[in-house]
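The methods section describes the discrete structure representation at length, but only in general terms. What matters is that the chain and its backbone geometry are given together, residue for residue. For illustration, here is how one protein appears when written out as sequence plus structure tokens:
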Amino acid sequence: MSRPFISLCMIVKNEAERIAACLQSARDVVDEVIITDTGFTDGTMDICRSMGASVDSREWDDSFAKARNSGIARATGGGFYGWMRMKNWITMRVDSCASL
């Protein structure tokens, strides 16, 4: 049995110093990365794009739910979504997700 296609959705703002390591930690676990930018002023989005993430910008309107839902709406993972905050990095291996 193969594992499902998994989309990682993230809200990101001004994380240029850490975003590459964060996305690298998810590379072997997810099939696509969806980034919702809420007003970056550094190179975060360029780094995300260079690592193959799908990036979209939206104006911050004080609603994490709207920003989260914006990313989820763009995901193509067939209902399997992962949501990760910048301070959380993925440390598990793909084979540990086999029961999903």
